[in-house]
């Protein structure tokens, strides 16, 4: 049927009708809120490159946990800004049962036991060179030796009470090793959300500022993170991570990779998540500060685009704002 029998504007003509015909929904339950943690007491430390986002000390996390629950946000993701004197070549602080991450997990679980806690597994917040893995003297990443440390890091976080382990390091074989480690210690219900298709991206800059690793980073992460030119390779990464025991997979960054999300969604039955990363946050905030975008509308539109592309949920620094707008 063509015009005038078909007029697509009919169903768009009133708010009730638009609500009825919406193909995609977005709710606070779709959101994971990433939070940066730092040492100290009563600290709310603004992150220069992410206006509106602060590093919080552990004693401030109970408040954030209550806010998440009251807004209907089901899960918080934690990222530690490790003190410089606790960073080392081998990232050993990642294995310390009393490190910032473990204290943060316990604080969240004490405050709100029903709130999901997701923790990053990768060595970059703990290494003096800012890489996610162990390095040889000549600066190569040691894949298999790194995995051993990552398993220890994941177990350390599981013992502290986290619900979801999210390996973001992109080493080959780490999902299987971490899954085996979790099983061997009886953490059979701890989930793994694999950063499966994580690209070597320019959009992580503000994050590295937030966790304090950027200043240390020598070189780039292109020998482990994916080439932005590739999509079939993302399918292989996802396939392997599912086979190794991932419960869900992630595509990262978000907006520049919506095609990857859609492809993964169409090929696999596993839940897919997107990470709207720090650079995407900074981009919107810069446009808002310049007076060229309406923040609320831009945020909800980008989050809806992830759902439309097939995501089960989204990690976003806008989680509290979006939950308020949707609530
Ligand atoms: C660390 C990690 C990064 C992010 C999440 N985990 C940065 C990186 O790989 O350098 C980026 C998140 C963001 O930019 O918001 N492995």
In short:
The protein is of the alpha/beta class and 327 residues long. Helix content is 37%, strand content 17%. The chain has a single domain (24-326), classed as Aldolase class I (TIM Barrel, Alpha-Beta Barrel).
Describe what you observe in this structure:
- The chain is α/β, with parallel strands linked by helices.
- It is globular and about 70 Å long.
- It starts with 14 loop residues before the first helix and ends with a helix.
- The strands form 2 sheets. The protein has an 8-stranded parallel barrel, surrounded by 9 helices.
- Helices cover 37% and strands 17% of the residues.
- Residues 120, 122, 124, 132, 168-169, 204, 207-208, 221, 277-278 line the site of ligand PBG.
Helical content band: 25-40%
Number of helices: 11
- Summed over residues and divided by their number, the pLDDT gives a mean of 97
Order of helices and strands: HEEEHEHEEEHEHEHHEHEHHEH
Structural class: alpha/beta
Share in β-strands: 15-25%
In spatial order, strands of the major sheet run: 1-4-5-8-9-10-11-12
Task: Please provide the count of β strands.
Answer: 12
Radius of gyration: 20 Å
Compounds present?
ligand PBG
Counting structural domains, the number is 1
- Report how far the terminal alpha carbons are from each other: 39 Å
Major pleated sheet: 8 strands, parallel, barrel
Unreliable sequence segments: none
- CATH first level: Alpha Beta
What do we call the CATH homologous superfamily? Aldolase class I
Cα shape:
globular
What would you say the CATH architecture is?
Answer: Alpha-Beta Barrel
The CATH topology corresponds to TIM Barrel
